[in-house]
């Protein structure tokens, strides 16, 4: 609720009179005075500019304002909060899987739908696929290092991971062939 901005003044005869004070004002970018509604809209605009620049900590701080402006401020704050939550989770998963090597990380964002959910789900699919591929490669290369040449990489893969899979499987097959020929050579001697 806005204050009524009543101020005590004296008329030219020195009698007390009540006069409505103009709404609180400040100067805009163009140097002109802004009224309260304009300042509220300016606050919303500043948050939108901050979000556009990647600052998801910005919030509209115009207090409890009734009506459409208050609803817009609340919605902007909710959207910014969702952006911050989804962004933080995606950043965490990317850091854990991509930088720290913590396979199996998944983004967890409650109460999202539409594009937010699609984005979260796609990050989780990406992290899950990478985890499965790396773990399968690790199982096979560990087996080879321990002398077990019976394993093959079987995980579905595309692109450079597919090339790595095929190269390792070819290497294991060549080692297996070499080991067989060495055993045959020893048994014929």
From TrEMBL:
Coiled coil: none annotated. GO terms for cellular component: membrane. InterPro entries: HAMP_dom (IPR003660). It comes from the Bacteria. Residues 1-33 are annotated as: Disordered. The keyword Transferase does not apply. Residues 40-88, 128-180 form the HAMP domain. Keywords: Phosphoprotein, Two-component regulatory system. It holds the Pfam family HAMP. GO terms for biological process: phosphorelay signal transduction system. The keyword Phosphoprotein applies. PANTHER family: HYBRID SIGNAL TRANSDUCTION HISTIDINE KINASE J. This is HAMP domain-containing protein.
């Amino acid at each position: 609720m806005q204050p009524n901005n009543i101020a005590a003044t004296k008329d030219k005869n020195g009698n007390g009179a009540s006069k409505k004070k103009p709404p609180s004002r400040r100067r805009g970018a163009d140097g002109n005075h802004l009224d309260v509604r304009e300042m509220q809209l300016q606050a919303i605009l500043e948050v939108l500019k901050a979000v556009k620049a990647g600052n998801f900590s910005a919030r509209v701080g115009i207090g409890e304002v009734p009506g459409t402006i208050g609803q817009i401020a609340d919605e902007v704050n909710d959207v910014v909060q969702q952006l911050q939550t989804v962004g933080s989770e995606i950043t965490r998963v990317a850091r854990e899987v991509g930088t720290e090597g913590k396979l199996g990380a998944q983004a967890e964002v409650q109460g999202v739908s539409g594009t937010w959910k699609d984005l979260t789900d796609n990050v989780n699919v990406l992290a899950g696929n990478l985890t499965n591929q790396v773990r399968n490669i690790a199982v096979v290369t560990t087996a080879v290092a321990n002398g077990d040449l019976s394993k093959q990489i079987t995980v579905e893969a595309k692109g450079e991971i597919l090339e790595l899979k095929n190269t390792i499987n070819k290497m294991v097959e060549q080692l297996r062939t070499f080991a067989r020929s060495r055993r045959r050579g020893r048994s014929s001697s």
